[in-house]
Please model this.
Amino acid sequence: MTTTEAAALVERRGNVAVITINRPEARNAVNGAVSIAVGDALAAAQDDPEVRAVVITGAGDKSFCAGADLKAIARRENLYHPEHAEWGFAGYVHHFIDKPTIAAVNGTALGGGTELALASDLVVADEGAIFGLPEVKRGLVAAAGGVFRIVDQLPRNVALELLFTGEPITAADALKWGVINQVVADGTALEAALALAERVTVNAPLAVQASKRVAYGADDGVITEEEGKWQRLLREVTTLLRSEDAREGPLAFAEKRQPVWKAR
Model:
């Protein structure tokens, strides 16, 4: 098994492909190997007529996904799939497939972890799961689509509170606001996600896939309405990353102190 293959495990449960981010020692943080493994697994699921749904989860019981691997970023490693950068973070967030995707959130899902959930069609979470987009606390924005998907999926004022404060919410709160489908006992998110997938896969697969394409407004694997948002996000992030505050946020975090913002 190569490093890339080990970064995410893929198994079949009937007509469901289960993708498990497999870096529990790093709280399932996303590096290049994860993006390759998850992105390739998602592409394979799309091309396999026997696969009718996909479940994504994290290894271990502490974290679904801790977001981007900061150590890999510090080493200036490429976090994206080298041949499919357009698939985005984890090879997942900008990678549309017409098979239903279900996130089984089995622990903390802050930052990129929440963005993986927001990029999924359905979400099942352990009751101890935590969601949130804390990027503004580090001088950054939720650049894996979270900054616009949270507003699309929640009441605007609730979404803006989460974006502006960067504060986390519990699984119960996420359920209350409709950003996830189910909250289940700790340790059972994967089991519950597979049960939900079974309720989907009993239906006619071509009808489900056509329904998903129309529901999202997707043509040739692209959600047309989102493309302008991705372009705007890229422009904003490119400018923001040149700012002093974007350097100060991670530095303050590394030095375990409060950041000093200069708005420049």
Summary: Residues 25 and 60 are 9 Å apart (CA to CA).
